[in-house]
Amino acid sequence: MTPTLGQLACYVVPRGKHVAAIDKVSELLGGRKVLGKKLRSRLDLIPLLRAGLPYEALEAVTSKLDISIDVASASLQLARRTLARRKEQNRLDGQESERIVRLADIAAHAVGVLGSAAKTKHWLTAPNRALGGVAPISLLDTDVGTRAVEDVLLRIEHGVYS
């Protein structure tokens, strides 16, 4: 049985930076069934990202987050026509794959901080004052935006007003 988003958790690495555990990110992406192997570390993602993730990884993460592929594609700057081609090819390119992994990583972290899948979905898709009034999911198409979202999650986790 595939775990739900609510069953996902996070861990704290020694320097105190909160990072979603790779096994939780892997589960959001569809696990071994979709990725073709068990991920033991973030380094295991690199060849998968370079080759491009299977299209099913996008379907898995959107299903577990209970958001539509259209919402994810618009937020992550993934063109719908391109995604239609990728579905036929069953392969995303490297940049598209990276954005999907960012979404899975942030979602796993958010579940650990917020405590439930429902709260995570709402938090990801609702405008956030600390992020300039935009939804966190809409910032995951860039590294800078992803860091801003991570910073807000860390502030929530540590009870810092933002």
Task: Describe the protein in words.
The chain has nine helices and two strands; from the N terminus they run ββααααααααα. It is globular. It has a two-stranded antiparallel sheet with strand order 1-2. Strand 1 (10-12) and strand 2 (18-20) form a beta hairpin. The protein is mostly helical and 162 residues long. 57% of the residues lie in helices and 4% in strands. The chain has one domain (8-157). Helix 3 (45-51) crosses helix 7. Mean pLDDT is 87; it is low at 1-19.
In short:
This protein is 57% helix and 4% strand. By secondary structure, it is mainly alpha-helical.
Beta-strand residue percentage: under 5%
End-to-end C-alpha gap: 38 Å
* Shape estimate: globular
| Topology as a string of helices (H) and strands (E) | EEHHHHHHHHH
Structure annotation, total helices: 9
- Domain count, please report it: 1
Strand order of the largest sheet: 1-2
Radius of gyration: 15 Å
- Helix/strand-derived category reads mainly alpha
Topology of this protein?
Blueprint: E1 10-12, E2 18-20, H1 22-28, H2 31-35, H3 45-51, H4 55-65, H5 69-75, H6 80-89, H7 94-114, H8 117-125, H9 143-157
Antiparallel strand pairs: 1-2
